[in-house]
């Protein structure tokens, strides 16, 4: 507990992260844009007629376009470290969109003939700049985190589960990690923090510790502080740091769509919580997104569907498809299409197996799944479930409007009694092929855990979240992180 801060080392660390990281990210952005321009150009030449000619000035290719992109990316704050990955994707998308418009406008201002720039080139540049910007940034993040460099030095006030959750989030969610310099509290309740980080006793001495450390970022994660204690703490340390954040005691409240409104005269903060899926326009946007992305996914999925059809047909006796009833929007049942992955007498096989294996029965009672071995599953089914290929026919449910690409789990009618208070909110929207719980644990999550995650997704929905969850689903499938 009696540790001391290394002021000089922390000061140098903070200077490095404050100045080197934006430069490093900008270099990565420049490389990403140049590659995107080149790929878009050569693909455009390949797909256009042979007599097509497109001339892009070198100054425009190597200077103006990258400069415009880097300006908007920097202006959108995409170089900042402590930003969740889904917000980062949204910021990059918006910066990318404005950059394309600005680049075309600059081309017009420098009196270049914009009719020589193909619309296909502009569309391809938009798509590939998004891909390469995000990919190269993720490579930089991965390298920095692996080498444990360029992390933001942070002091936490609060030694409980909230601090633990914040640290785990920033170190495990595709963003630049944080360097925990120390944790200050009067009482440390988290064993995780006790085993890993320097602890300092006494919140009343927080200003003294922070001044000695020279750390410029402090997070107050002591949610049980009363108003006067919090005000006093903020007053004592605010002038010592550049970045001061505190976590209000609203844990469990939907926060993804939270708007902060300020009433300056009386120092009042108004937190406006929006239920996005309650707005008709957002339900229409989600439906359009499902149709467009569903049709795009169907193109490469057709040959895979055909192969899986014959694979299931010749692997075991029974129908190729398992068309089960599921709970849809407003509690209406619908037929959910899947490739059959179990033997025909699966209920009897399961009952016999659970009767002979009490450990498996306990696992079934908790998760409603068997993780290591399920005697009902066929040889083809084991592989298809591991890669989620058995759920590809649900694309038809998506196009019919019975399901969404992303949404809560399609629950069984027999599970209604177990859903409790979550039932009403879950049936307020259509279920999804994938969802928040599938990419944050998949079959490793308990039944109640799935309900909580589905509830969180519905309250916090945004189109950006759907895009991120689709991307993370692809990663989860390729790395076989549990079966859906």
Polypeptide structure, described:
The chain is α/β, with parallel strands linked by helices and 484 residues long. The chain has three domains: 141 residues, no CATH class; 100 residues, NAD(P)-binding Rossmann-like Domain (Rossmann fold); 165 residues, no CATH class. It is 54% helix and 11% strand. It has 17 helices and eleven strands. The strands form four sheets. Strands 3-2-1-4-5 form a five-stranded parallel beta sheet, sandwiched between helices. Strands 6-7 form a two-stranded antiparallel sheet. The chain has a two-stranded antiparallel sheet with strand order 8-9. The model has no long low-confidence stretch (mean pLDDT 85).
Sheet/helix structural class: alpha/beta
Distance between the termini: 44 Å
Name the shape in a single word.
globular
Q: Percent helix among the residues?
A: 40-55%
Pick out the low-confidence regions. Answer: none
What string gives the helices and strands in order?
A: HHHHEHEHEHEHEEEHEEHHHHEHHEHH
> What is the averaged pLDDT score?
85
- Neighbour order of strands in the largest sheet: 3-2-1-4-5
β-sheet strand percentage = 5-15%
Estimated radius of gyration: 26 Å
Strand count: 11
Largest sheet: 5 strands, parallel
Query: What's the helix count?
Result: 17
Number of domains: 3
Domain Bacterial sugar transferase: 286-478
GO cellular component, one term: plasma membrane
Main location: membrane
Subcellular location: Membrane
């Amino acid at each position: 507990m009696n540790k001391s801060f290394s002021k000089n080392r922390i000061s140098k660390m903070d200077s490095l992260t404050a100045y080197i990281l934006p430069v490093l990210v900008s270099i990565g952005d420049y490389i990403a844009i140049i590659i995107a321009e080149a790929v878009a150009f050569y693909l455009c030449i390949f797909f256009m007629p042979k007599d097509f000619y497109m001339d892009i000035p070198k100054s425009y290719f190597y200077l103006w376009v990258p400069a415009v992109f880097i300006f908007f990316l920097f202006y959108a704050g995409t170089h900042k470290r402590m930003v969740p990955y889904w917000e980062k994707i949204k910021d990059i998308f918006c910066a990318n969109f404005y950059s394309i418009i600005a680049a075309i406008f600059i081309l017009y201002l420098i009196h270049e003939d914009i009719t020589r720039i193909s619309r296909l080139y502009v569309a391809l540049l938009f798509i590939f700049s998004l891909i390469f910007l995000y990919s190269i940034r993720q490579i930089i993040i991965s390298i920095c985190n692996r080498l444990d460099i360029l992390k933001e030095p942070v002091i936490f006030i609060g030694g409980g589960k909230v601090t633990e959750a914040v640290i785990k989030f920033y170190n495990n969610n595709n963003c630049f990690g944080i360097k925990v310099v120390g944790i200050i509290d009067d009482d440390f309740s988290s064993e995780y923090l006790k085993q890993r980080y320097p602890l300092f006793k006494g919140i009343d001495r927080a200003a003294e510790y922070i001044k000695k450390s020279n750390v410029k970022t402090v997070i107050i994660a002591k949610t049980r502080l009363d108003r006067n204690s919090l005000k006093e703490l903020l007053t004592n340390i605010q002038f010592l740091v550049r970045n001061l954040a505190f976590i209000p005691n609203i844990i469990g409240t939907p926060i993804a769509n939270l708007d902060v409104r300020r009433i300056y005269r009386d120092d009042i903060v108004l937190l406006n919580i929006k239920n996005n899926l309650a707005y008709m326009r957002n339900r229409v946007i989600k439906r359009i997104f499902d149709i467009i992305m569903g049709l795009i996914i169907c193109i490469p999925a057709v040959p895979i569907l055909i192969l899986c059809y014959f694979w299931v047909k010749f692997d075991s006796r029974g129908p190729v498809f398992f068309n089960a009833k599921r709970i849809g929007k407003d509690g209406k049942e619908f037929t959910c299409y899947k490739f059959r992955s179990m033997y025909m007498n699966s209920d009897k096989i399961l009952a016999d197996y659970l009767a002979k294996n009490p450990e498996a029965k306990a696992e079934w009672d908790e998760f409603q799944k068997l993780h290591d071995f399920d005697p009902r599953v066929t040889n083809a089914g084991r592989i298809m479930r591991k890669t989620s290929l058995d759920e590809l026919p649900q694309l038809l449910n998506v196009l019919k409007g019975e399901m969404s690409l992303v949404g809560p789990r399609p629950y069984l009618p027999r599970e209604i009694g177990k859903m409790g208070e979550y039932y009403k909110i879950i049936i307020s929207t259509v279920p999804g092929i994938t969802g928040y719980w599938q990419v944050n644990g998949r079959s490793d999550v308990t039944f109640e855990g799935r309900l909580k995650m589905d509830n969180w997704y519905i309250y916090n929905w945004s189109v950006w979240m759907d895009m991120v969850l689709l991307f993370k689903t692809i990663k989860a499938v390729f790395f076989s992180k549990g079966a859906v």
